[in-house]
Amino acid sequence: MSGRDWKYFWFGLPLLIIGTALLVDGLVETVALDVAPVCAPGQVVDCRLHEQVTVLDINVQRHPPANDYTRSGRGGFYYTWYVHVQLPDGSTQGVQVQDDINFLLHFVGPGEKLNAELWRGRIIRMDYSGGGIDIVLIPEDSPEVKGPEHKFWGTIIMILGGIFLAVFWWPFRLAGRS
User: Fold this and answer.
1) Which of 13, 53, 150, 155 sits at 20 to 30 Å (Cα–Cα) from 59?
2) Cα separations (Å) of 5 from 18, 157, 178?
């Protein structure tokens, strides 16, 4: 076996490790969130806390399309909203959400009350009901978003690492037969 073939091993092994770590992280986050109970009075650790928060301000950033595919049907532009809210204890949090259809701008403004779900000290979901419409805002760093992303990319990276390791191992297997 030539020295060049080792590149497959040294490339495949880290991919396999990184993919496994991402997959496990995604599974742990989503399972922990799925089994977390609603907080009892006075409990705030490893449970889902429901609070009413007040919108302090909303900032928007418009992003051009990355390619010809149009995500929103409106010329391909999509929007990232930065919503800053105040919790009942007086602390503030900023959350980043995607809103391709601009509902947020038309229905929610400073001073508006939103129902928020907190888990491990951060907002993982906000709901707005009013004016005959219901809006659910899920922050981009929520386990509901990151968990499936980590599981998907972890699986893809693990498969790539496995392919590189198989390409590395195949000549050893063939050499053992002769």
Assistant:
1) 150
2) 21, 20, 19
Residue 125 to residues 22, 69, 88, 164, Cα–Cα distance (Å): 23, 28, 16, 39
Whose structure tokens read 């977390």? Answer: 36
What does the block give as tokens for 100? 């391709």
Count the residues in the chain. 178
Chain segment 38-81, per-residue pLDDT in tens: 888 777 777 888 889 999 998 877 777 655 544 445 556 667 77
The ranges assigned to domains in the chain are 3-32+147-177, 39-145
Is the pTM value of this prediction over 0.70?
Answer: no
Dihedral angle computed from the Cα positions of residues 109, 115, 119 and 125, in that order, rounded to the nearest 10 degrees: -60
Assess contact for 123 and 53: CB atoms under 8 A: yes
Strand 133-137 and strand 48-63: the pairing is: unpaired
- Dig out the tokens for 149 from the structure: 């992303």
